[in-house]
Design brief:
Elements lengths: L12 E4 L4 E4 L8 E5 L10 H19 L4 E5 L6 H10 L3 H18 L15 H13 L3 E3 L5 E3 L39 E6 L2 H4 L11 E3 L1 H13 L3 E7 L3 H16 L4 E7 L2 E3 L2 E2 L10 H6 L4 H9 L7 E2 L2 H23 L10 H16 L4 H20 L5 H18 L13 H15 L3 H13 L2 E6 L2 E6 L1
Parallel strand pairs: 3-4, 3-9, 9-10, 11-13
Antiparallel strand pairs: 1-2, 5-6, 6-7, 7-8, 11-12, 14-15
The chain binds adenosine monophosphate (AMP) and zinc ion (ZN).
Adenosine monophosphate binds next to helix 1 and strand 9.
Length: 479
């Protein structure tokens, strides 16, 4: 047959950090899934650990599309916090001038890694008045209080659900003026009332402050996300994502602020990706064990290869980064692209239909793997199974051009999620064995060994390349 058969997709099941269970995904409106993902703090270049989380979120978003959902995606840009202010002061520039180049670099990296752009990228500094309003509402509702230091704090004892995401028990927690924290980042050992509005400190904050009913200051990081999410997506989101380090305190605090303010559930589904690690330690700026995307491009890798590496392991499993691992990803991706090139080179007008069943089974298994909490390693394994079986058929000359086109079409559908395949053969990444075949073919011609030269030309053609001879030598072109 070889016509495209639409594959019906199974129910999508996703792991919810709130319940620690896989649940069938049920958005409020399937045509507009409201997705919020915590974005970068633009005080430096993002590292590929950050991008592991963003690639996971992109796979989620693309899978939603593959399963027929429409998505409205918001990712914030944190352009004011301790680190951005410190950087601006150290360089004696304004906060905007300091963050601008890192913002631009982030968007370039998003493109290089094939991430679908969010529909909105709100910057925290554009929502200060909305943040002040939300703090006032929380004070009016009796869950927040101004401290004598000019900061405003959230009283966790006034929110009985505090701890629902990180599964902390409230009676183990401290609450009250003596234990509160004003730092944006802290851990479970110092759970306490947290800051919503940070009073201005002239040594720490330089020129960075906004006026508020509680004096000069700036919003706390946790509050920023709650406000931007609710302004752009409403009081109730469908999915909120981040890396596992965001679960506590950041997302726990977002839930407390948002639900105390609106009285409704902030997000039905919370998804968190595990860390990219190096020798079992989280890749991070502070440990110095990081690579930026740019570092890897300088080493000769491309965005597709880095994306492949970051997405091939299930998002809830730690991924140990090594350059060898990246080499492995490069080879695996090349195999898929070589296969596509071979399919483009298949000749013969007759469809044999022999590939149909293999392609259909791969499509069913691919959707099944994604439906099982985005099991990308299983999804990729089904593609490699298909590649192996179709290659066998091609070796036996058992498929014609229409069959090969159906295979390519199916790969194109897979690529709506993977976003790394060279479907049209645009990239000039020429496999090493084909480069070698060209060298040997030129030698054969120089030795007037025409039979060998013709054989090698066929090898090259079967891999999807044509040879262009010119006075300056022979070059390869994608067919
Ligand atoms: P940050 O700029 O530190 O707020 O981090 C931005 C995003 O990257 C957050 O969702 C973090 O959870 C995530 N992240 C940071 N380090 C890593 C890592 N090593 N592996 C995976 N995700 C990370
Ligand atoms: Zn956030």
């Amino acid at each position: 047959m070889t016509t495209e058969v639409e594959i019906s997709t199974p129910p999508l099941r996703l792991h919810n950090t709130l319940t620690r269970a896989k649940e069938v995904f049920r958005p409020q409106d399937p045509k507009k899934v409201r997705l919020y993902t915590c974005g970068p703090t633009v005080y430096d270049f993002a590292h590929i650990g950050n991008f592991r989380t963003y690639v996971f979120e992109d796979i989620l978003r693309r899978t939603l599309g593959y399963f027929g959902y429409g998505v409205l995606h918001v990712m914030n840009i944190t352009d004011v916090d301790d680190k951005t202010i410190r950087g601006a002061i150290a360089k004696s520039v304004s906060l905007d001038d300091y963050t601008e180049p890192y913002k631009n670099a982030f968007f370039e990296d998003v493109e290089t890694l094939g991430l679908l752009p969010a529909h909105h990228y709100p910057a925290a500094t554009e929502y200060i008045s909305e943040m002040i309003e939300m703090i006032q509402t929380l004070i009016d509702k009796g869950v927040a209080y101004p401290g004598r230091d000019g900061s405003v704090y959230f009283a966790i004892s006034k929110f009985p659900n505090y701890g629902c995401l990180s599964h902390l028990k409230l009676d183990e927690l401290q609450s009250g003026a003596s234990d509160r924290v004003s730092s944006d980042e802290y851990d479970k050992d110092n759970v306490s009332d947290f800051v919503l509005w940070k009073a201005y400190d002239d040594e720490r904050d330089g020129q960075v402050f906004w006026e508020s009913p509680w004096g000069k200051g700036r919003p706390g990081w946790h509050l920023e996300c709650s406000v931007m999410a609710m302004q752009l997506l409403g009081d109730s989101l469908d999915i909120h994502c981040g890396g596992v380090d965001n679960i506590f305190p950041h997302h726990e605090n977002e839930i407390a602020q948002s639900e105390a303010c609106s009285g409704t559930k902030f997000s039905g589904l919370w998804m968190h990706s595990e860390h990219l690690v190096v020798d079992n330690k989280k890749m991070s700026k502070s440990l110095g064990n990081f690579y930026t995307l740019r570092n890897l491009l300088d080493k000769g890798f491309n965005g597709d290869q880095v994306r492949y590496l970051l997405m091939q392991t299930h998002y809830k499993t730690k991924l140990n980064f090594t350059l060898d691992g990246l080499e492995g990803a490069k080879v695996a991706l090349q195999r898929l692209n070589d296969f596509l090139a071979r399919m483009r080179g298949i000749e013969g007008d007759e469809a044999t239909g022999k590939a149909d069943q293999v392609v259909h089974a791969a499509a069913v298994d691919f959707a099944g793997a994604l439906a099982d909490d985005l099991n990308m390693s299983a999804a990729l394994a089904t593609i490699f199974d298909m590649v192996r079986e179709i290659n066998l058929l091609a070796d036996q000359k058992a498929i014609g051009k229409p069959d090969a086109q159906a295979v390519i079409e199916r790969m194109r559908r897979f690529n709506e999620v993977l976003a790394v395949l060279d479907i049209e053969g645009q990239s000039l990444d020429i496999p090493e064995d084909i480069q070698q075949a060209l060298v040997e073919r030129n030698e054969a011609r120089a030795n007037k060994n025409w039979a060998e030269a013709d054989r090698l030309r066929d090898v090259i053609a079967n891999a999807g390349f044509t040879i262009e001879d010119s006075s300056s030598g022979a070059t390869l072109k994608r067919r």
